[in-house]
Backbone:
């Protein structure tokens, strides 16, 4: 659809169509009537009915984003199922299971979004009203889940640090009950910091026409009455600080302290004969496993935190696109999010390669499934081969003389 057609639709019966609550600045403040271009803001969009996807991004979104997200959901289901076994339950596995849940929610939102818009190539058309609503729901759901995921990972680092540095207090501070409460708090924090972004936006349906011919119902995304650009900007900075910068900072500090503590501990007990026993070896493997997870997560999320700091500076100083150009921002956002998706997927393979207990439980699960399937098929075969008809149950009768 051409920009001139979009302009006609935007200004058609505006006071009636949008309820008279929106001015030119609130509806199309980022829109240029001479060129038809609009700026792609970091925190909200004035005209979301048309997707903005560059040609080089389409295969990345359609195949890599969608494929990795679906595979991650699949392996995370396996992780949760294995860790749910009684012999695998602990405060650490509970956090790892919670992390798998939050990562799966992120991947679900990413998969649905990119399969519909990019794999099925609906990005070429104006967004339909129902998909505009779903697009908004998926975005908020992804942001809330990502905040929870960041904090749960930070909790993993804090838990390992407490267990190593304060072993006598770890039993009470790092219990399963304490882990459950901490995860609930992280989920609530994710909901609270993004609730303003969720309720500050209102979606309107309007008819997309080509002249007098009706095409279909599109949508327009606008801020609610009374919501200012300043409040949206402040909300973006606060939510980004709480959900991205702060957990990444906590994780960075705990990971460095944990690495130093493990290094000193390994040197101090290298000659100790007790270091060779089974429990100590299991603890070392668990610490190493968690440390690798924290490091991979930190590397993937650190770039996102740096990007947030740049965005926050540009917004607060009113210097939009001064540090990151639009093209550089597209590249950073595309490859940075892809790196995050890879980190979500890596967790299963870290468990599988580093934990013999996880491998054993995983193999037991697979073998039990195969055994049940074999038993079921065997019973079906035996019943079919020994099938008794109704005449088999009738009593024998004497022949008539």
Residues:
């Amino acid at each position: 659809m051409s920009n001139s057609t979009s302009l006609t639709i935007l200004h058609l019966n505006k006071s009636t169509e949008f309820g008279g609550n929106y001015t030119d600045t609130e509806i199309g403040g980022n829109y240029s009537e001479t060129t038809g271009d609009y700026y792609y803001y970091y925190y909200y969009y004035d005209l979301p009915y048309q997707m903005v996807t560059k040609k080089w991004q389409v295969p990345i979104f359609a195949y890599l984003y969608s494929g990795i997200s679906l595979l991650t959901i699949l392996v995370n289901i396996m992780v949760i199922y294995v860790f749910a076994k009684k012999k695998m339950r602990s405060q650490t596995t509970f956090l790892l299971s919670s992390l798998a849940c939050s990562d799966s929610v992120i991947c679900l939102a990413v998969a649905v979004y990119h399969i519909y818009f990019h794999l099925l190539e609906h990005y070429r058309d104006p967004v339909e009203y129902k998909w505009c609503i779903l697009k908004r729901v998926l975005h908020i759901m992804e942001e809330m889940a990502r905040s929870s995921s960041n904090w749960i990972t930070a909790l993993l680092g804090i838990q390992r640090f407490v267990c190593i540095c304060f072993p006598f207090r770890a039993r009470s501070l790092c219990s399963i009950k304490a882990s459950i409460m901490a995860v609930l708090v992280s989920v609530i924090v994710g909901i609270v910091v993004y609730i303003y972004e969720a309720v500050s936006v209102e979606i309107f349906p309007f008819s997309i026409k080509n002249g007098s011919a009706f095409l279909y119902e599109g949508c327009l995304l606008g801020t609610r009455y009374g919501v200012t650009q300043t409040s949206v900007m402040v909300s973006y900075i606060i939510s980004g600080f709480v959900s991205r910068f702060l957990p990444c900072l906590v994780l960075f500090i705990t990971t460095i302290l944990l690495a130093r503590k493990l290094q000193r501990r390994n040197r101090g007990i290298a000659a100790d004969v007790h270091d060779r026993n089974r429990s100590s070896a299991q603890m070392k493997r668990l610490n190493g496993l968690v440390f690798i997870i924290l490091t991979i997560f930190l590397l993937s999320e650190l770039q996102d935190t740096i990007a947030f700091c740049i965005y926050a500076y540009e917004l607060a100083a009113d210097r939009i696109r001064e540090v990151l150009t639009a093209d550089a921002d597209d590249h950073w956002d595309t490859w940075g999010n892809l790196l995050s998706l890879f980190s979500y997927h890596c967790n299963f393979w870290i468990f599988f390669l580093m934990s013999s207990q996880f491998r054993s439980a995983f193999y037991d699960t697979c073998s039990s499934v195969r055994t049940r399937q074999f038993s079921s098929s065997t019973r079906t075969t035996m019943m079919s081969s020994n099938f008794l008809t109704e005449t088999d149950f009738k009593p024998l009768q004497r022949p008539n003389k």
